[in-house]
Amino acid sequence: MTEETGIAGTEHDAEAEREVSWRAKSVGLAAVDMDDAELLHGWRSDPVSAYEIGIWPRSLTAMRERIERDSDDDDRDDFLVLLPDGTPVGHTALSGQDIVNGTAEVELMLAAQHRGHGHGTDALDALVDLAFDELPLYRLTAETHTSNAPALAVLAKSGFVHEGISRAACLRRGRRHDLAVFSLLRPEREELNRPRAWDA
């Protein structure tokens, strides 16, 4: 797998020897480390991402501190989303993992230039397979703005069920916005007619 994901001599040298721990149709997942701070900081500073995901861009130092803190959090797993040639195109995570109750929340963010190519669905499918086939999880949840059409489409395509609306749950640009709440249960995922990550 290392040979497929590394491209030495390019701007992605940091990924040249990166081990892809999980793979899907068009992407692989590799654990986030401290060397990824600048890359993640740049993505999170994109105004579209900041608005749609509901994040406040912070300093590079804060991003490094966050990665270090999250690496010690047993309830969270963060991954870079990589193309087969090693190009990083996004970030995904399983957060708030509750192994006793079998629940977690999924997170996904793609770099602006890599949106609209199907990588979001492939990354989410890979994360779902990881959650249900490597971890004893039973229920995954996700939230996004009700106006975030690309995210709504990715969630639906990956089999997530729209549970309802959290009314006026977030404040963005001086206005209150509703959040769409989605979930996917293990039995629902087992009924999905798609290859599993390890078959990619």
Highlighted features:
200 residues; alpha+beta; 7 helices; 30% strand; globular; disordered N terminus
Structure commentary:
By secondary structure, the chain is of the alpha+beta class. It is 30% helix and 30% strand. It has an eight-stranded mixed sheet with strand order 1-2-3-4-5-6-8-7, sandwiched between helices. α2 crosses α4 (60-71). The protein is globular, with a radius of gyration of 16 Å.
Give the secondary structure arrangement, pairings included.
Elements: H1 2-5, E1 22-23, E2 28-31, H2 37-44, H3 47-53, H4 60-71, E3 77-82, E4 88-98, E5 103-110, H5 119-133, E6 139-145, H6 149-157, E7 161-172, E8 175-185, H7 186-190
Parallel strand pairs: 5-6
Antiparallel strand pairs: 1-2, 2-3, 3-4, 4-5, 6-8, 7-8
Spans with pLDDT under 50 lasting ≥5 residues? 1-15
What is the CA-based Rg, rounded? 16 Å
The number of helices is 7
- SSE order, as H and E? HEEHHHEEEHEHEEH
Distance between the termini: 12 Å
Proportion of beta-strand residues = 25-35%
| Structural class by SSE content | alpha+beta
Outline: globular
Strand order of the largest sheet: 1-2-3-4-5-6-8-7
